[in-house]
Amino acid sequence: MSDGALIYVRHQDKEENYLQAGHTLASWLTTTDHKRIAILYAFAITFFFFIGGLAVGLIRLELMSPGGDFLTDDAYNRLFTLHGIVMVWFFLVPSIPTTLGNFLLPMMIGAKDVAFPRLNLMSWYIFIIGACFAILSIFAGGVDTGWTFYTPFSTMFSKGDVIAAAAGVFIVGFSSIASGVNFITTVHMLRAPGMTWFRLPLFVWAMYATSIVMVLATPVLAMSLLLIIAERWLGMPIFNPANGGDPLLFQHLFWFYSHPAVYIMVLPAMGVVSEIFACFARRRVFGYAMMVYAMMAIAVIGFFVWGHHMFVAGQSQYANLVFSFLSFIVAVPSAIKVFNWTATLYRGQITFEAPMLYALGFLGLFTVGGLTGLFLASVPIDVHVTDTYFVVAHFHYIMVGGSVSAFFAGLHYWWPKITGRLYSEAWARFAAIVMFLGFNTTFMPQFIMGYGGMPRRYHVYPPEFQVWHVMSSVGALVLFVAYTLPLIYLTWSLFYGRKAGDNPWAATGLEWQTASPPPTHNFTELPQVTAPPYRYHPEHQAPDAERRQPETVQGGEP
Amino acid sequence: MSETSPVLREPWPSVARQRMAVSFGMWVFIASEVLFFGGLFLAYAVYRLLDAEAFRIAARETDVFYGTTNTAILLTSSLTMAMAVHGAERGFRRMTIRCLEATIVLGLVFIVVKGLEYHDDLAKGLWPGPDFALHPAATQLFWAFYWIATGLHAVHLSIGIGIVSVITIRLARGTLPIQATAFEGVALYWHLVDTIWIILLPMLYLVGRA
Amino acid sequence: MSARRNSEDHVSALRLWLKPSIIWLALLLLLGLTVGSAYVPLGAFNGVINYSIAAAKAALVLVFFMHLDRSRALLRLTAFTGLFWLSFMFSLAFGDYLTRSWNGSPTALHGAAEQSAYPQTRLPLDPRFGRRD
Questions:
Q1: What count of CB pairs under 8 Å joins A to B?
Q2: What superfamily in CATH does domain A32-529 come from?
Q3: How far from each other are the two terminal CA atoms of chain A, in whole angstroms?
Q4: What pLDDT score does C118 carry?
Q5: What is the pTM of this model?
């Protein structure tokens, strides 16, 4: 609970919250309030999440049997491309930063809004325009290049509407860059008095590190896509070997972005779970400074490892060695974070609300994904398992088991703050457990069959893999249920949920010191910060078990 | 604590802070532009390494006169843009407007000269494709780079001309105060466009001349 | 009163032009130097000179026109960041291209274009692949 650490003037109950300030569609579509923009983004990414999910539903249905049953080769290619493009660029990359990040970043630092509110709105419109191009390419029949757009297939031979798809991704890239510029400037320039850098919540640091990666990596993606468009549309030979072009150059440019992109997808997740572990174990985060340095190290070193996606593509062996070594190095800060989260939990007063369940799921699943990444960083192993389901399982453990779990964790944790309503804790815990079980059922078999040689992007496969594919598809069905349940009970809570108080979790952090939902300008008085974050107990002491409060669920109401 | 000023915008507590943020934000954006063009420059550098002779043959066909003239035009436009900012800082409204107008004119002259150059290049058969004028085939890589780099630069310049025109008109009409924080940010963007061209000059016009 | 103000403004406006104009002249001078030296046969040094001069011109614009000379450290650091990150891209990518020939790895060699089985540009290339987008 907040004590004298934060000097804060209580809000007036009569002040309207941000949801009440304007009820027309126009008030939403012309808003510059970061909280409303976060909700606009939430609608967009939820829509695309289900589009990407639909694609994979069809894929997993097809994969239940070894032959090419109801999808042609071409249709299958287009579906996995759709799944990849939509899930990466239209769901995961924006997910936590544009929804939770937009909503919470200014509040967590004690600001009234982000640095450039109109640019924030423009970011959303740019996203929507890019989304329109993507939808256009879907209606044109889709693209069969894989989400990686490798040349010269994408530039010279693919029959799909590559230009529309590439243009869509190109445009949403600028939405990313604009958000990144906004967040970086916000953190540098709008911190409340007393909010020094090392008093920032780890979620803010995570947003900052993510934004740096977004600003510096995304432009290179933009260029690589522009070059594809130029070659395909204007006939400019850039990657065509007949003109001395090198297809591998495309891969260098593409992966220079796409590897840091996975850190764009995971760093915000790390920020979310840091907040949640501290709150639900009633503990300060172990090794706060190292957590900060680790996130910044991940953001920087993540730029040095892209070649590990090209070990068998024709890169020089010496480059392979260097990239392999650097890929091992980049795992170190992630491991430090896993150890620190675990140490945060140690001797904590742990309770298992839904956000904590999702966060604990993240901890285990991210660790599995991260460790399998080390296998892939080793060139001799990668030579055998690259382009197999082993890689597919690896990145899904991190991106779905990791980032999506953390997204749901954050969604549930901050739901009372964003909407002013409490969700049903019983249904939420159930959904979290179903998700964990469904996830492992889906993706653990993929490690096994990948190791056994099942290639990725194939829908016709030898019968010995069928048992694993069936398990995986059943798991996918369970996952579908687990993802749909929150849609139902969260929507239900908007209308019938109990009203949440300012701070149902008794959490520290400036966002919990204002009303739920917050007023339009976040705070009625400018907060002053005099102490570090996570003051769940005095420094150098564990929480006192003798004086522990009985477990209170969401503010103590039965 | 919070001042009222025609320049101050939400959520800034002071104009000084807002001014600093506009510059800082623009520099962060400039970093992204450096990476954007940098990717293109990597492609150029890699292909130059792989086939230097073809690059030399191809690069001789660019027109040094156009390139040098355009560089001089842009450098001058940077001068006038910098002076516009200095004028704005001191509240010299008329001087600022004149300098902004000069910047716009110089930018437009650049576009016109570029257009003339493009016309000549096309007439010489330098658009990559089956009718390309040069041999060996790798010379098309240089020219693909030329069209893409100069085209992208022209797009950036056009956007710059558009933005500068908007702020000039608003300043002239009085809807934008002379103390507005926008001038420094726009100027930084303009100088970025100039700097990109400064780097493009040796890449496109000065290879294989000797 | 206002006439004197105007003439004072006029004088200080002119003085404002002095330093930037000197920078501008330096830039034009460097332009002349780089174009002129390009015609002197110096082999690989032509490139070194030209890019050094380009860097010098860029530095002049960055420091004097973009006000890095009077900016706080944060802005200077930010200004440097793009280039610094680009160095990662160039060094590691060239780490691949420069070492490709060391162990007989396949590489895009000079003249490979002529030996390539790929058709040259422009779609559609092969009627079997049907229409372009």
A1: 119
A2: Cytochrome c oxidase-like, subunit I domain (1.20.210.10)
A3: 20
A4: 60
A5: 0.93
